[in-house]
Amino acid sequence: FAAGAVFAAGNITRSIKNICAFMQKVETGDLSLRVHETGSIEIEQLSQHLNRMIENLAHLLEEMYQE
Question: What is the domain count for the chain?
Fold first, then answer.
């Protein structure tokens, strides 16, 4: 049981680190990037919501530049 918990915690930590690295890249202004982390349902949902947020932000910026 303990080995499984350590393995799961390691996977979650890896996913969070990957998501943080992704967010740092987006911070530089590249709104074309998308994150595709899998694992726990929560990590997958976080990835999906981040992608939607970036898509919405890109769309809003595009609208602002067109005006």
Answer: 1
